[in-house]
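User: Can you predict the 3D structure of V-type proton ATPase subunit F? Sequence below.
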Amino acid sequence: MAMHSAIKGKLIAVIGDEDTCVGFLLGGIGEINKNRQPNFFVVDKNTSISEIEETFKKFIRRDDIDIILINQNVAEMIRYVIDTHTTPVPAVLEIPSKDHPYDPAKDSILRRAKGMFTPEEFR
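Assistant: Sure. Here are the predicted structure tokens for V-type proton ATPase subunit F:
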């Protein structure tokens, strides 16, 4: 999968707090496409839920993005939008932030994936 995505030039997008976005940008994932649209969105205390929702929807529609990383506390703000995304690509992965640890019980994608397997399949 990683090699396939690299060949096609697919991106990872990030929606999160400043520390999360800066960390990933320093890791080299930052891109601005030909329409001058970045693949990251910094969320702070002044960011409206509608801005987060619209950015998520834009990332979902972009054909150059295969994975969307989103801080779980930000995902909680737009859970109703994330829950409507059911296609495997782009994959949506919820990640912790510096101030908010990851809680698997809140991750709707993980809950959906668990429903696909029976406990016997994990033995």
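Confidence is low (pLDDT under 50) at residues 1-6. The beta strands are 11-16, 40-42, 65-71, 91-95.
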